[in-house]
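re: ur msg from earlier - yeah i can do the nicotinamide-adenine-dinucleotide complex, just paste it... oh wait u already did. ok heres what im feeding in:
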Amino acid sequence: MRIVNSSHLEHSMNIFDSLVDYGHEEVLFYSDPKTGLRAIIGVHSTVLGPALGGTRMWNYEHDGDALTDVLRLSKGMTYKAAVAGLNLGGGKGVIIGDARTQKSEGLFRAYGKAVESLGGRYITAEDVNTNVRDMSWIRTETQFVTGVEGIGGSGDPSPFTAYGVYCGIKATAKKQLGKDSVSGLRVAVQGAGNVAGHVVSHLVKDGATVYVTDIFKDKALSLANETGAQYVEPDAILSMDCDILSPNALGATLNDETIPQLKCSLVAGGANNQLADEKKHGAMLQARGILYAPDYVINAGGLMNVASEVDGYNKESVLRKNEGIYDTLLRIYAMAEERNILTVEASNALAEERIASVAHVHRTYSRKTVINRSQSSSGS
Ligand code: NAD
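and the outut:
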């Protein structure tokens, strides 16, 4: 295992400028030619606690693309954990390679050693193209991994993500429509996957009229049949006349082309990175009078579930935390109004203010300790 000289990166990015821009504490490169491991771990912040974030495996065309992903995603985890009220920082790992052909026990155990070398400053989990088996290989070499079956594991995060999304939809409806429940509201749900399935069930049970779609028609049809939702075609969902649009498929749903078509009062869903451009499209929604629930706030239920493993898994406490998303969103909407900023800007500010206040407490405490020591030594 060795640290790779950054000049080997093919991409023309200026690495140290990027680190300054993103504000990372450390970024580590690992290479183990025998197992084929080429990995990067980004520890963005440990102010609130150990940096938790998944490891994805992807066949990046350039190493610089992998680094950009690590920097972007680990910073995102810092904000998500901070707003979720978790005592965790943000981190992310990437393994460069083809997940279909290059996975092996040796590769993931070498990666486990890399995680272990950080001494608990980074805790990993599943992400795109990694699974429970990969996590158990990592667990052989380090305890700093979550999502391992049979060792106090938290299991599938989707039901918790969905429960948080449902609570967040209710908060957003309360703010925008003055409604205490979704009963009688029309909700258009994009996607019929793991998260959407549970979101639709909660909404239908609560009396909403739900429309659902998926690019795999059979998936959406069977979800509609199971729950009593109504199927609509994928290209009709965004322009549906409805109260709530809930994106639960892939990212960048809200863009230059789609926002003018929307006929909803609010957008609240579990998909990551819903705004193609955070500021531009957040502002376009606001200008149209559509209230947007910041995605990383409303979809933090799954992270809360994984985070619970760190201190000993407790399902009831996870569900209470999921319900806290309701109050967090109301606080964000109030901040956005008071400061005349976008809801995404308010959630970013909430994260930054929490991190700054905790950093201040840590700094203050350390300084007092030093003063006390010097006083006691001068007196002896
Ligand atoms: P999933 O793969 O189970 O479901 C996604 C579904 O969206 C699939 O059925 C897919 O066919 C469908 N889809 C893709 N593009 C579509 C389109 N244009 N129109 C309609 N349907 C489309 O994934 P998931 O775990 O349910 O996650 C859904 C979203 O929530 C993702 O953006 C994910 O990053 C985010 N998220 C998930 C979790 C979690 O706990 N699973 C946590 C946080 C965020």
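cool cool. The radius of gyration is 22 Å. ping me if u need the other ligands too
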